[in-house]
Amino acid sequence: MTFLLPRLPGPACDVIVRRFLEHGPSAWGGFRPDYLPDQVRFAATGGAPVPATYLASVRQDLVAIARKHGFGQQGARQSHAGFDAEAAAWLARSDLFTTGEALRDDVWAFVAAVMAPDITYWRFGSSTERYAGGVRNTFQRLWMRGRALDRGPGHPERWGLLDALTEDALVQITERPSIGGDHVLALAVAEVWLRAARHHGKGAMEDIMRRAILRIRVRNEIRSLADLPPGDLATFLDGVFGVPEGPVDQAMRPLSEVSFAEAARNVTQEARRRGWLSPKSQSALENLAEGHAALERSERNALDYLLGRLSDSGLLAQDISELREALSSDFATTESSASGPERPRRRSWAIWRAR
Q1: Which of 88, 164, 290, 352 has a CA positioned 20 to 30 A from the CA of residue 26?
Q2: Biased-composition ranges for Basic residues (predicted)?
């Protein structure tokens, strides 16, 4: 069942936050999931309101993570960066924040201003933008980081990028919709940042990162970088960041070495489960699973649409990239220059609000 999350409109958020800050966190009465503020709303359709027990569980887990990093403990060593990394991974894994509800600013305003204003205050004090919804929201920004920089469940250091990157690097990636909203590109930029930091040193990375992001954004408007084969994308980004040419460290590769036959089987299984598999896309995937990359135009178009749909949903990023690489290499040898312009790629970040 799809659960609808509580929404706190902007004006109501301003009132609640102002009252909270006037009296201070010590006077806060705590979170009562059974008695939400009158201003809180739920969507009229699309699912059932989330049970109060689920909200209480989210609050409990966030507090537990915060306490591990010094929240509510006098004299304890405060580790805000540690909290950010662990909470980002937890939010990205949470089943409650996997639907479109998590894309709404007013949902995160509820989390920061009603569910956990004490954690928000511990993390950012009286900065009101950290309570309101948006890319600066205390928890929304962490969820965006976790979703963008997830290396995948099969990676031995799945959430390592959240710990390794500096705050400036994380902001540069996730607050740029054209980068942070594209999982493949965001992950590749984060991985090359690590390689560049090893080469240049972390102290030099702030200026390098800001110049590189400008070049990446401009180039991405001309050619969709996420559609490049992984090796070509890594080579381009290494050049932008000034990383010397050489073999890419396998531990730092943005994508796992998965055969396109295996990727085709994974995509087939997921698409069938969601009811998205058409006869043409199924035929294309069956050919790829058998090791044949030469597809008819109709099969290629159907598969391209399916991969775009899965990518927009944040699913199977590694498998999708592997299939796109196989298709692009075959396309270069089988299509003539008169075949017409390349179809524009659907942007998964279009639903993210630019701030």
Answers
A1: 88
A2: 344-355
